[in-house]
Amino acid sequence: LANFFELKSSDFLFKFLVIGNAGTGKSCLLHQFIEKKFKDDSNHTIGVEFGSKIINVGGKYVKLQIWDTAGQERFRSVTRSYYRGAAGALLVYDITSRETYNALTNWLTDARMLASQNIVIILCGNKKDLDADREVTFLEASRFAQENELMFLETSALTGENVEEAFVQCARKILNKIESGELDPERMGSGIQYGDAALRQLRSPRRAQAQSAQECGC
Amino acid sequence: SLIKPGSKPPTTPVKLKKVSTFQEFESNTSDAWDLGDDDDELLAIAAENLNTEVVMETAHKVIQNHSKQQEKHKFQEEHLQEEKQVESAELTSIPCGDNRLVKSVSEGHTSSSSDNASENYSMQRSQSLPQTSTPSFVSGIADHNTSITPALSEREASRLDKFKQLLAGPNTDLEELRKLSWSGIPKPVRPIAWKLLSGYLPANVDRRESTLKRKRKEYFAFVEQYYDSRNDENHQDTYRQIHIDIPRMSPEVLRLQPKVTEIFERILFIWAIRHPASGYVQGINDLVTPFFVVFICEYIEEEEVENFDVSSLPEEVLQNIEADSYWCMSKLLDGIQDNYTFAQPGIQKKVKMLEELVSRIDEQVHRHLDQHEVKYLQFAFRWMNNLLMREVPLHCTIRLWDTYQSEPEGFSHFHLYVCAAFLVRWRKEILEEKDFQ
User: Fold this and answer.
1) Does residue A137 sit in helix, strand or coil?
2) B293 with B138: CB under 8 angstroms?
3) What is the mean predicted confidence (pLDDT) over A105-124?
4) Contacts of A78 in chain B (CB under 8 A)
5) Does A70 lie at the interface with B, CB-CB under 8 angstroms?
6) Is residue A183 a part of any domain in this protein?
């Protein structure tokens, strides 16, 4: 089935970031999302690594281009340069490490300042499977998410719980924003592009949009 | 910083007049590294394919250029050596009246293992862009050894002899050692050669043992002095980072041995707190591995290599390996410290230089990347930060470091050319790739 989607052309391309402290499981989340399995020999990420996957969100095919960034502070000056034009982000902390949770505000500031203004962020409390070692409660993180207008899920890259959901929910929200007109894919740096399906249909995105507007009119 | 003020963007030493002919030549010599070639053989191959005059002219230019650089480097090195002593980015001043650096290996070991030494120096070429996931730390080295005839070829034997003569002293000619090492160091003499090339071990044979003793003692004095502070408030971030990185380093064979992870943690922690300008940066941990593996191979039988239990070695031997790895890694890092200081200026600069270089030697690849909005920083950052160790198998890194250590500024300047060669090597695949999304 995954292969089927790979072959499918997409309606949109979204640039996604995965950010958060070192060792919170960012690369493992990405690997679980793309490969549907846990990567147990995951070396730490240097700079940035990439992954992409086409998902179906409410009948639309969306290609996610995911930028998995290094978590260590020293790489921050480099990873920051990758933020520009991201439409969505997974902001990851580790539920068994308060330190990674305390760092969220900094990450959030960076993301809002450097990525697109309307970036849609989902907070992921990862390592949900290690509940016995939990240092951050669901309730606490959930409040933080609310206060900062973030979506929120607790995830497990190990078991796969909520991993796909995190990416899909984030993508769905972006699509909703596009449909409601809150997000304009044609604005520079929106982190959104029309996919090859849309482009093939009509050469220019502008005309594609014009056409869909007409259809609605009917 | 030890980067010399005069260092300029690299310029290709030779102007290539007929690119197509050169490419032909290049493809005919793609196996050049398979057997640790001597220059004369390469020239012979070249002569068959290229106009001899051009070849000789080119060769002379290269040689002249190279020896000029060597001269210049030698001079700079002497000065640098003194400067280093003074400004050595270390916290405390180390009382050492001796200006040279130390070091190592008991020759008994090196010579005893020479009989079963068989190694070729092929840089294996992966079919696709390589992902390093070597399951065993020396699997490469092992494969490698078993895949070759057990007897040393005459040529290998004579190379080994040359090394042994050179290393026997009374004073090892370092210039000669660099020349010889450039095209690969035979495994039995690699540990001692690396210690000499890195400047850890003195050229004078009589001073080696005492230097080793002193430096090892010095390292363990640091451990005693600092290691207990790893959980103190001002150091705990450093230690925590190291502590979460080591269990996920490669290769697996090492990472799964608690004895090994302890050693790596100590080496990295001590280095980090003695170099506060950079501290520990992810990727530095990878740089310990080649030293550790090369030094440990001195004590391992060939056939043990795959499943070797490090804790079976005597404590004293392990301590020596640990201290030697620390000092040699420090030497390496001295030359590339600005890769790891705030904002990583060394890497930024090198990535720009790589871009510039590629735009000149392979405009097509350069344009292709540009057209697809692939930024050099996106792929080459890691090549610089981890010296390609995530891109090539460990045994290739070890072979590559033979050359890096025999080049002036091998880990910074020469590394650029290797990165460029890496891109050009996969130019076909790169040019065929239309989707970088």
Assistant:
1) coil
2) yes
3) 92
4) 344, 347-348, 377, 381
5) yes
6) yes
Residue A82 touches partner B, C-beta closer than 8 Å: yes
Q: Please check whether residue A56 is in contact with residue A5, taking contact to mean a CB–CB distance below 8 angstroms.
A: yes
> Residue B179 is which amino acid?
K
Statement: residue B21 has pLDDT above 80: no
Residue B139 has pLDDT above 50, yes or no: no
Domain range enclosing A93 = 12-196
Q: State whether B385 and A47 contact (CB < 8 Å).
A: yes
- The span from the CA of B3 to the CA of B413, in Å, is 10
- In angstroms, the CA A5 to CA A196 distance is 14
Cβ B344 vs Cβ A74: under 8 Å: yes
**Which single residue is written with the structure tokens 């409390």?**
A125
Residue in B with minimal Cα distance to A99:
B237
Put simply, the answer to whether A72 touches B241 (Cβ < 8 Å) is yes
Q: What is the C-alpha to C-alpha distance for residues A138 and A143, in angstroms, rounded to an integer?
A: 9
Backbone angle region of A149, left / alpha / beta, with phi > 0 → left and psi within -120 to 50 → alpha: left
**CA–CA separation, A32 vs A66, rounded Å?**
13
Nearest CA to B198 out of B319, B322, B332 is that of: B332
- Chain A residues touching residue B343 (CB < 8 angstroms): 77
Rounded Cα gap, residues B289 and B310, in angstroms: 14
Say how many domains are in chain A: 1
Distance separating the N- and C-terminal Cα atoms of chain B: 38
Query: What are the domain boundaries of chain B?
Result: 162-335, 345-432
CATH (residue range B345-432): 1.10.472.80
Flag whether residue A75 sits within 8 Å of chain B, measured between CB atoms: yes
Q: Is some CB atom of chain B closer than 8 A to the CB atom of A15?
A: no
CB distance from B252 to chain A under 8 Å? yes
Q: Which long-range contacts (CB under 8 A, 24 or more apart) does B36-43 make?
A: B36/B120, B36/B121, B36/B156, B36/B159, B36/B183, B36/B184, B37/B183, B38/B183
Q: What is the ipTM of this complex?
A: 0.82
Q: Is the pLDDT of residue B7 over 60?
A: no
CATH number at residue A115: 3.40.50.300
pTM: 0.74
Residue B341: its pLDDT value, please? 94
Structure tokens at B423: 């891109």
